[in-house]
Design a protein that fits this description.
single chain, 2 domains, two-stranded antiparallel ribbon, 2 strands, 45% helix, elongated
Length: 97
């Protein structure tokens, strides 16, 4: 492995850890936001101190987009499973527990 590859791999790990932490934060925020919206009720509208107007609505749908490249990984401690099976990781020549 050359120095360039090792640098990219280290940066990759750093970025995936940040992304996964942000996903967990977004999940927690989304759950709390949904609970607050449910408390306010469908159709509730108000203007915030910053001047923006908000209205609680039933969404019409979700936009789907497809990534050109993504990653999978073996599970972390405490997870039920990862997106990359240990058997595949072993088949690739890695030592996984």
């Amino acid at each position: 492995m050359n120095e360039s590859t090792a640098t990219f791999e280290a940066r990759f790990v750093e970025l995936t850890e940040k992304k996964e932490a942000m996903k967990e934060q977004m999940k927690a925020i989304s759950e709390e936001l949904e609970a607050v919206m449910m408390s306010l009720g469908m159709g509730h509208a108000f203007q915030a101190e910053n001047g923006l107007v908000y209205k609680i609505i039933e969404p019409m749908g979700t936009i789907t987009y497809f990534k050109k490249i993504d990653y999978v990984r073996t599970k972390k401690e405490g997870e039920v499973k990862g997106s990359l099976a240990k058997t595949e990781a072993k088949a690739l020549g890695f030592n996984v527990g």
